[in-house]
């Protein structure tokens, strides 16, 4: 038996032994990727000689398709090296039709409950593992501080502590306790991808080195140090004049040197091509590959372009050292050995039926959807307890399933595949119609999918086009209107207007109906996806944060005849409308709840569930107020620094519509028994608070701990989220929450870019959102200390006890 086939040896030892036996061509192929398309003749052509990673596109039987392709790869690899198959996993196993589906990341961020994220990714792990997909291209660690950016929905919000805790939970759930039965997680997009010039996808990153390290790197760092993150994906953007994929300072010095990453760096799709266009830093594809490899990019996706056979020539002519290739290949092989791929390269067919049973996952998904819903305003109109009330539901979200679903779901994937038809019958070498037809065989909805493309080749903007497919995939899914009909006797629906476009012809009809209703539920929002029919999503960025189309006109027109309006908003970012916050009787943020959105929203509206979601981003007054985030540095936060003009701007108040961590409830809570214990020798701080439900309903409260460095040699944040805990309290129940952390949480980079914990006073604040200061305490550090950043505290842990 070859040494590298001895499972008793360490993965790195096995990888080194195998590497020594490989020729240059076989090594280079381990750094490439191929899209495997089962039903297209000749698609196996690029798999001869082996391949590093792959993704299966289309196909009606993913497990058997993967088995067949994997056998071909191994039989055609000189050393029978299995491919590592990947797929998206942001809200469930996206590539698996019929797989579990949870709310998208921004919704999970709004729950302030990392445990839910870990449960979601555990279900995802079981399903991907059983199907032989061992590499997940998730989660997203980006911080959403510019709401114009279309991918806000993929993030956990704008706060590094919240994102860090969610990232750790996701990675632990997906990778599992034993990686040989797990799925390698991928943190993305490293780094600063979300904070770009103009809020536009893939543009120049507008973050200084200090902020990049202290805040944007923190979620990645937490996942690396606390969950052993196995894979990282580069950002499409550029930093300091270099695209990230060729930026050694970012991919090697920061990621591997400072953050301690030991895994594999995989390219975002076609990153290498961007070096030629639009970045124009080279005009030679092989040169692009050489530069990426030298910077620390190990694997190129989605196909072998810059990492193709040209790399062999680059080695022969001296442009590329073979040691650089060996370094990357060793990382890839080590991961494959860690995953146990050589012993277990195929799907686990005996576990497949049990893994794909979504009964428990669906129950958890429903709970997560309810926990994400955030009550932003309420004058007492909610909940609607009287089932005899005459209620009108109007607005484009009111009776549409698709608008409750996010991008990076099987639903949006099917829609995206239809959208590819717009640019012709073939796209990147495969037949789109064939993919759709094959996908349709699996869900019996060929006509629905194909109807998304009209005779001219344009993609249909009909928001209902995917609803039939959704109902086939998720029979339990309900629209908001359908959910309300389960609780109310006298509820009707009129659309009023579409989610985009300028057609106002239905508004008058909605206004007439509203004048005769007791309460109007205005269901507004956008469509999260990809392509021109979407209003948010990947590559769908906005110059405005206003409601798309004529939805604001619908709101104002209805309000004139009936001020009892309850606004339900769903989208990848929060509702930004000063008018709505000033006039609506109630506002509910539904985010993007996916399958159980209609059910969960109806539960909240009718009082069957007490909402406790919290804003994972600060809500600005307009696009002109950006950026706003609660942990902005001292001196640059507008509303909190009114030294010149009291209201912040000469023509507008700079205060946010809603702060970070904000959300209302149908009950009330009282905080007391505040206590801080600081052990100066160890640096350990324990903050205790008791919370009592003083209202008439059971409910959840999210207790939040913030801190400030009051005076420092470098400008510090106004305050930082240290930790949080969501607790459930019955009527009259009291619980004690204890936060434990080290004072080196407050460490920072000094003027020489060294980590220090500087002497002085630190203010600790307990509240229910970032603007709420129920209790505070000052602790003092007597002397400045140098800090090992790899050992510093990243967030507080919390314990709950009953009283």
UniProtKB/TrEMBL annotation:
The keyword Hydrolase applies. GO terms for molecular function: beta-glucosidase activity. GO terms for biological process: carbohydrate metabolic process. Pfam families: Fn3-like (PF14310), Glyco_hydro_3 (PF00933), Glyco_hydro_3_C (PF01915). SUPFAM superfamilies: (Trans)glycosidases, Beta-D-glucan exohydrolase, C-terminal domain. Keywords: Carbohydrate metabolism, Glycosidase, Hydrolase. Residues 701-770 form the Fibronectin type III-like domain. The keyword Hydrolase applies. InterPro entries: Cellulose_deg_GH3 (IPR050288), Fn3-like (IPR026891), GH (IPR017853), Glyco_hydro_3_AS (IPR019800), Glyco_hydro_3_C (IPR002772), Glyco_hydro_3_C_sf (IPR036881), Glyco_hydro_3_N (IPR001764), Glyco_hydro_3_N_sf (IPR036962). PANTHER family: BETA-GLUCOSIDASE (PTHR42715:SF10). Belongs to the glycosyl hydrolase 3 family. This is Beta-glucosidase. It comes from Eisenbergiella massiliensis.
